Amino acid sequence: MIEISQLRPDDRPEWTRLWQGYLAFYNTVLPDARYSETWRRLMSGDGLYGFGARQDGKLVGITHYLFHPSTWVDDVCYLQDLFVDESVRGQGAGRKLIEAVAAAARAKGAPRLYWLTHQDNATARRLYDTLARWHGHLRYDYPMG
Predict the structure, then answer these.
(1) pLDDT digit string, tens, across residues 51-71
(2) Cβ atoms of 66 and 80 closer than 8 Å
(3) What sign results for the dihedral spanned by CA atoms 33, 39, 43, 47?
(4) pLDDT average, residue stretch 112-117
């Protein structure tokens, strides 16, 4: 059975492992300082929030989310990262993590919850297509440095 809760201080080692797995999927490596700063923000509620999925008490999935202003509506919720350990994929952890973020967004009165994924992420898109609508938007990143 998968249970969802806020990330806890003792989750740090498993959170690091899971976030590294997420980042590896996107061919990204971050310096140790970024892990420390992100963890500090997650634990302090400093604009960044996270949930963990647990099976038999072990952290097997994570999600990070934040709220930000919008010119069209009140503050919206952005689900930034979602990752579930391969050993438990397909057992509902991803869906439950998204639903936990949706509940947090509703509690804050956010009129929108959205996220991004790579077009080739077929496994995740199968889940996302059952939970949300894709509106055809594409993301562009301007090179800042």
Answers:
(1) 999 999 999 999 999 999 999
(2) yes
(3) positive
(4) 89
Task: Give the Å distances, CA to CA, from 59 to 16, 30, 104.
Answer: 11, 21, 20
Does the structure show a pLDDT above 90 at 9? yes
Q: Where are the beta strands (DSSP E) in the chain?
A: 2-6, 49-55, 58-68, 76-84, 113-115
According to DSSP, residue 87 is labeled G
Give the Cα separation of 87 and 90 in Å (integer).
9
Domains annotated on the chain, with CATH: 2-131 (3.40.630.30)
Q: Are 53 and 4 in contact (CB under 8 A)?
A: yes
- Which residues neighbour 22 within 8 Å (Cβ) at sequence distance 6 or greater? 62, 81, 82, 83
In the chain, % helix, strand, coil (3-state, to 5) comes to 40, 25, 35
Residues 23-42 have a mean pLDDT of 95
